[in-house]
Amino acid sequence: MKRLFKLLLALLLALNVGVPLASAQAPSDLNLTLSSEPPSLDPGVTNDSTSVAILHNVFEGLTNNVDGEVEPGVAESWEISEDGLVYTFHLRDNVVWSNGDPVTAHDFEYSWKRVLNPDTAAQNSTVLHIIQGAEAYNTGEGTADEVGIKAIDDYTLEVTLEHPAPYFIELPGYYTLLPVHQATVEASDAWATEAGDGYVSNGPYILSEWNHNSDLTLSRNDAYWDNANTTIDSAFIQIIESEATQNAEYQAGNLSYLGAPFGSVSLDSVDLYRANGELQANPYSAIYWYKVNTTDEIMQNANIRKALALAINRQELIDNILKSEQIPAMSLVPPVVKGFEEKHDYFQDADFEQARQYLAQGLEELGMSDPSELTINLSINDSEAHSAVAQFIQAGWTTELGINTNIDSTEWQVYLDKVSNLDYQVARLGWIGAYNDATIFLNQYRAVDTGNNDTGWENPDFTRLMNESDQEQDDAQRIQLMKDAEAVMMEDMPVIPLYFYSNDFVTQAGYENLEPNAFGYIQLKHVTLAD
């Protein structure tokens, strides 16, 4: 019956005929959308918000991050040693994989060490470097047995840190640390690319169908330990690239929700949703930034990078293009992050005079005599919103600096490959803070080969300050060291901050908690039906 419904819905969408949700399906069956195909549904290696939107619903970690608080997940309790070095997690004994196998502490030891295994090439492996022996193993200088992740028995996991880190308790809820089923992973390299029995998970939902580049279906996992407190039975997730089409489908009643991470409120629909009282905006630990390839012949010049950064009118971009609750970013760490709540700008917004001075210095250093000799290639992934932002910035750079800008737009997965291979000059990206600490935004720039650096930039002063912050026991001083590191980065400008996100969304009537948390994802297990 569900397959028949999907077929009829697909035909109706093709004919542009709207079917109101109330008459098309039960309220406990959600209709959602993604803007692109998830690149990988392997939590240990994935690195994008599209995949994470699915992963946080089909897997569950030791803990869950809910509304800024750490709540029990697979672990029902934990203790921290007096010296802050040893974390002992006690797992529930009634948690099973979707194939019926028990979930044990050994699964977490395997999964976390797999992330650290150099052969896995996990881009987020550095998040585990706080664990004893983890960095050495990850860099090929140590062994897995020397890593401080030990299954004491089936339901006890002991984690030993290199030094105390109060934020560590938030990490087990991070998507990179979600557990994977060892036998499934080792049976096939393609395990994370298909749905069904071959995709074994442990979360409140299972990936029951995946029609590539078309749709995915999440179905309630009846074997989930907390299934009795889950309301939503299924989520049918269509892949709709066009933001205009996404919004038309929502307005026709064909989508239960629209907004990150499931699609986006289109720029030309913001005023409509605001006028009718539907538009909501939640705080979001995320930044929209332009990364710069500092190995490029032109972009290796810091003065050129700083000229581009200062020649952007962020407030005008927000007011006239985005039309929402974003905050101009003249720093890297969002103001919702602990210790960074106070405004700490490193330059002025729209400082065109200073930008032109930097440009003149940069052109002289490059042997150019006129701004018109300089052409910048600005890369984005296919998106109406990203295109609108890029065109605004292109116009500003032309008007205020007199330089030329080409906009290059490519499909998401191709785009990610280009950025990771430094096949660009300036590239649009965003970053979501998956836990409440500045390290999630800064760690990726400790070294050129750090996962997600994607700029070719490193600075010994930045690395030193971040290393010192790791060792600092006083929390206020630790935060100050990270601010000092951020200042070093802003002086070099390998990344151009544009704005701190707000999470704009709209939801059909009848649902509660169908909204993104501060980390940008929705846990469908918490969604309920309104009375």
From TrEMBL:
Statement: the UniProt record of this protein carries the keyword Transport: yes
The Solute-binding protein family domain, residue ranges: 69-448
Gene Ontology CC, one term: ATP-binding cassette (ABC) transporter complex
Gene Ontology molecular function: peptide transmembrane transporter activity
Source species, domain of life: Bacteria
Compartment(s) where it occurs, according to its Swiss-Prot or TrEMBL record: Cell envelope
Keywords linked to the UniProt accession: Peptide transport, Protein transport, Signal, Transport
Signal peptide interval: 1-22
Gene Ontology biological-process entries: peptide transport
Pfam families reported for this sequence: SBP_bac_5
Protein family according to the UniProt entry: Belongs to the bacterial solute-binding protein 5 family.
Protein name (record): ABC transporter substrate-binding protein
